[in-house]
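Researcher: Here's the sequence for the chain we discussed earlier.
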Amino acid sequence: MSVLSIGNELLRGSTVNTNLSLIGKKLASFGFEPKIQTAVPDNADDISEALNFMMRNCGLIISTGGLGPTSDDITKKTFADFFGLTLERDIKTAERVRGFWKKRGKTRIPETVFNQADLIKGAEVIDNEVGTAPGFIIRNKKRKTILMVLPGPPAEMLPMLDEKISSLIKEMDFEKQRCVEILSSGISESLVEEMTVRAIGGEKILPAYCASAEGVRIYLKSKSLSKINAARSILEKKLGQNLISRGAKTVEEEIIDTLRKRKQTLSVAESCTGGMIGGKITDIPGASDVFNGGIIAYSNNIKTQMLGVRGETLKKHGAVSEKCAREMICGLKKVFSTSAAVSITGIAGPGGSSPSKPVGLVFIGTEYNGKIEIRKYIFSGNREMIRRRAVSSALNQLKKILTR
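Model: Thanks. This is the structure I predict for it:
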């Protein structure tokens, strides 16, 4: 299997290739992963050269991008020419394109948009239920290859992939691999690897790791599902509180699920993270069941006026201190009266540091059922990484206090 991403914007960095991630995750759910991934510009020769290479090495090729109405969207014609096929205007599709534009209130429709109604004769058409550009499946029996041609916008690409990928994998009769994903947080990649190797033992299981500020994703791949499940059970026990439960995709989702089951609530007080913790929480559907609200106490005035941090505390210990984090969380509880609470204050940089308080110094407070825990952290990296790591640590600290 391979993925061919088409578009100048991908190569110049103005657009992130999220399609590759989405396709990779979808293939992983079937126990497969791409052998090759290539990004090429909107150029017929480059597209053809990449396709030629992939056809020599892969049986299933998934292409994304270049099916739009503009002059640089040449993917469809390039593939048609490559396989010796022709384009043919489809009246039904043309009317669908027209109706799509009229629904958007457009009185003048550019003629070029109807290029999307030119279908590849001899290819299987995949209807686009979100946008206007259809997708295609081209089968080349001579070279035993299937090319799946999908539009670039992820919202249009993913439903088409979901609809067809299972049947195409079955059609290609690939040797099936099994793959499971285990999510961890608050633990280093090196420790995760050490635990994973021990859990696998001498079994023929291929592990892989993906680390980020939010945690480490572990992938176990093998032909034997029973061997994977046995290793998974061992690893999950070893991870303990650093394991994200199977029903959740992120720490924040597990926190919300835990509080919802207990019919309890949460509030946050943030300084250096400027609302990022609240943002993570409210990104989860149904967060309103447990999240009462938060205060972004970026300035000292707000810390004192809204959270009751004492002026004496700020003068003697500073805003970035254990004392301030503790008073922030106590004041937060008075404002929101929630079952759980989080406070965070620190120096994200690049300025604002001193010899005794370096960039990356962060104090995080968590409170649950009357028990307050304040922890000191020193994070490395630039401003963005320090803030991301601070958010991740705050959520992990809260998760652990909830599950003790």
